[in-house]
Structures are given as structure tokens and as C-alpha cells.
Amino acid sequence: MNVADAMTPRSELVVVEIPGSRNDVLEFIQEHGFSSVPVVKDVDGDEVYRGLVTRDDLIDQPDEDQLALLMREVPTAAADDDIVDAARTMVAEGSRRLPVVDGDELVGILTVTDVVRAIARGEVDGETRVGELATSAVNATHTETPLPVAEREIGLSGVPYAVVLDDEAAVAGMLTEVDILEVARVVEGEASTGDSIAEEDSEWSWEGIKATGARYLPTRNVEIPAEAVRHFMTADLITVNATRTAKEVAQELISNDIEQVPLVSGTDLDGIVRDVDLLEGL
Q: For residues 20 and 218, what is the distance between their CA atoms, to the nearest angstrom?
């Protein structure tokens, strides 16, 4: 199976153009649930691929507004590459998507979800038991954690989710980056640079110069509600056990539009099966 058989073609992609702003990207991510948006530029009438802006970039760089400085370079693929080779690149590079390019032209994009969909359909191997693929290193937070703190926990952990635990350490829900960005908003503000003139008794103060007050510079930030995580998490969770196959779990992920699912043994949380873990089975 080639990349072209699984990718989303350019005709179906939403892109943003340079020059542009963070608001252009935030709008698409909030309205459509995208995890990233390709960036292109018009060069003499031709559309040239430039990079990607991800939801991580918006959170990690809250004061940056220019699209050209927010975007990042990521590995790319060709339309005739083998999908298993592309999946291997995703895993090795820690990338959730590969822009598919022909020269400088963007012809599509292949995401982890596209590969998981191929696994779910049986188009590539999906017979590995997920007990062999799951990770036991689970990122977790508490039901009463303020959402901005949980967002930092997710950012610092390097994964797009947190399993939410209650007071008895039982699984109460799941919080994801998508949940956070759905309620985030960009706000304007001002930052003081402080008084630019020394106090009168300073030994280097010049006679006749008076303090003119503090200067203010405009700032931009991402504002996240401070309420507890329980107000924003998904409480009705899908779970799987270690005997399920990658194909079966892929079908659960696709049908429920989720990127990870808790691995349980009875009522005990044993790990997490992420969509990218299913790629390991290839």
C-alpha cells in the first residue's frame, strides 16, 4: 500500500498562507479539531509548501503572532512511498503527520490517523495484540487540577493527553490537547517595561531629567479557563484489554474519533494504547 492510497489529497486539505497570523490557525483547530495545518506561500502564482503549524506550537509560543515564525519543518513523504516506510518515519521522528510533496508542491498529507484507518480496514497488518504495543508510562492528572496546570502537565510530559484520576486514584476520565484548545482564546494585553529613569538619589541620575513613567508594550497570550479539569474532561471512556488486536483497537479509535485508549485489566489501569503505538505493530 502506497502513501497515495491513504493520504488526504490537497483538494481536501485546509491550509493557511504566509503572511498570516496565529488566529488563522486557531480558528481551524478549534472549529474542525485539526491537530495541525499546512502552511503554503504564493510564489509567482504557484503554491509552494513551507511547513506546518501544530496545536503544540500555539500553546508553546503564546506571544508569537506571525505565521512564518510559528510554523515548523517536519519530515515529508512522496506519494509513491510505501505506507509502512512512512509509518516507520513517523515513529522514528516522533511526527504525527507527513506532508506529501512533489518538488515544492503540496499534494497531500499522511497522518497517524490515516495509517490507523488503514489498519482498521485490514489494508495493512493489524494482528498484533495491543498488550505488546501499549505503554505503561501513563500521564495522569487529578479531577480538581486547574485546567492551566493540567495543560502544563500535558506539555511537559510530551504526550497529548492526561488520564484523569479521582480521590481514590480510579480512572474518572480523559483530558486531551483538543479539549483544552476548544476552550482556549487569544487575548490582548500590555506588559510594563518599568520606569526608564533612576530615582532622584541615584548616584548616576542626571540633574534636570525627570522620570516619565513606565512604558507599555502590547502582548498576546492564550487564555485557558482556570476551572477544574473535571469540567472539561471526557468522562465516558472507551477501554480495551491486552488481548485485543491492533486492528480491533484501530476500529475503536476511528469510530470514536480518539487518539488513545486506556488499557485495563478488570478495573486496574495497566497502561495506555496510543494511535502511534499501533504503528509500532507494522
A: 19
Q: Nearest 5 degrees, angle CA 106-CA 36-CA 282?
A: 80
129-186 residue pLDDT tens = 999 999 989 999 999 999 999 999 998 888 889 999 999 988 999 999 888 888 887 5
Could you report the per-residue pLDDT of 23-44, keeping only the tens digit for each? 777 777 767 767 778 888 888 8
Kindly list the distances between the CA atom of residue 94 and the CA atoms of 97, 256, 279, 280, in Å, as whole numbers in the listed order.
9, 23, 12, 12
Long-range contacts of 254-259 (CB under 8 A, 24+ apart): 254/113, 254/116, 254/117, 254/120, 257/33, 258/174, 259/112, 259/113, 259/160, 259/161, 259/176
Q: Which residue has the cell 486557531?
A: 26
pTM above 0.85, yes or no: no
- Bridge partners (DSSP) of residue 16 are 39
User: Do residues 20 and 42 make contact, with C-beta atoms less than 8 angstroms apart?
Assistant: no
Provide the 3-class DSSP secondary structure of residue 148.
Answer: helix
What is the rounded radius of gyration, in angstroms, for the C-alpha atoms of the chain? Answer: 23
| DSSP 3-state of 137 | coil
- Residue 51 region by backbone torsions, left for phi larger than 0, else alpha for psi between -120 and 50, else beta: left
Decide if 55 contacts 154 (C-beta within 8 A). Answer: no
